[in-house]
Amino acid sequence: LERTFSIIKPDATRRNLTGEINAVIENNGFAIVGQRRIHMSRAQAEGFYRDHKDQDFFQALVDYMVSEPVVVQVLEGEDAIKRYRALMGPTDATKAGPDTLRGRFALSMRENSVHGSDSPANAQREIGYFFSEVEIL
Ligand code: ATP
Ligand code: MG
């Protein structure tokens, strides 16, 4: 079993979609083994998205991520990293299938409802960024 890191983003928490998104996650064979609702600080959001700091959308992305609380999660399952990316759908939700989370819930390129780690190295970094070892036994 593999673990990945997920965020239910502000556009989704604001619309009370946490339960609906979690039902999709669990119905697709993932266990939610860690979960917390947090209001990220600007420093936390900037650190989390540090690989994007030279992108033109970086400042707007950080503003958005601190605009409302989010739900940070650790998901466990077979091939979890790749399978959760597939369940989310592409960043651009206009290209996402109707069965994907972004296809169903995204509002725009930025407000795309969920985040999921894109590699084992990033999954490890992102889980460690928000969770301590004893929270995800
Ligand atoms: P995430 O990392 O959140 O899972 P992703 O890997 O599909 O999403 P990235 O390229 O890592 O996409 O971008 C991180 C986030 O930045 C996106 O999820 C989206 O919220 C925002 N973003 C990406 N590209 C754009 C863009 N062109 N315009 C506005 N926002 C963008
Ligand atoms: Mg990404």
UniProtKB/TrEMBL annotation:
Cofactor names: Mg(2+)
EC no.?
2.7.4.6
Q: Where is the active site?
A: H115
Q: Which InterPro entries match?
A: NDK-like_dom, NDK-like_dom_sf, Nucleoside_diP_kinase, Nucleoside_diP_kinase_AS
* Signal peptide span: none
Q: Record's Gene3D superfamilies? A: Nucleoside diphosphate kinase-like domain (3.30.70.141)
Q: Which EC class is this protein assigned?
A: transferase
Q: Name one GO cellular component term.
A: cytoplasm
Name this protein carries in UniProt: Nucleoside diphosphate kinase
Q: Which gene encodes it?
A: ndk
